Amino acid sequence: MPQLTVLPSNKVIEAAAGQTLLQALLAGGESLSSKCNGQAKCGACHLFLKEGRKGVSRMTPTENAKLDTIVGVGSKSRLACQVVLGEEPVTVELLGALSGF
Ligand code: FES
Fold first, then answer.
1. Binding site membership of 45 for ligand 1 (Cβ less than 6 Å)
2. In 28-101, where does DSSP find H-type helix?
3. Cβ(44)–Cβ(35) under 8 Å?
4. Which of 21, 30, 67, 79 most suits a substitution to test ligand 1, by most atoms within 8 Å of the C-beta?
5. pTM reported for the whole predicted model
6. How many Cα atoms are found within 13 Å in the side-chain-facing hemisphere of 4?
7. pLDDT tens figures, 23-54
8. What is the mean pLDDT of residues 95-100?
9. What is the tens place of the pLDDT at every residue in 68-92?
10. Which residues contact residue 76 at a Cβ distance below 8 angstroms, ignoring those fewer than 6 apart?
11. CB of 38 closer than 6 A to ligand 1?
12. CATH no. of 3-99
């Protein structure tokens, strides 16, 4: 059961392997936008994956293409709806109004 740490609040959520980051964050009470219903089309779920990148699903061409259209993207950027959790702990930084779209 992966532990999900959410910055900047430092909240810790007990997630489940196989869940997307978006599902885990919403289940944990975070208010992350998902205007496209997790289809990698809106970019609203953009966040920084700070730790645990090797334990989650790899970026798909679809996710990569969407990230290319978002302002403020960095090397740790991911779309929460596209990241499937494994067993490793993960730390994410929510960007809120800074998400840049
Ligand atoms: S919810 Fe739209 S891109 Fe993730």
1. yes
2. 61-67
3. yes
4. 79
5. 0.93
6. 30
7. 999 999 998 888 999 999 999 999 999 999 99
8. 60
9. 999 999 999 999 999 999 999 999 9
10. 48, 49, 50, 53, 93
11. yes
12. 3.10.20.30
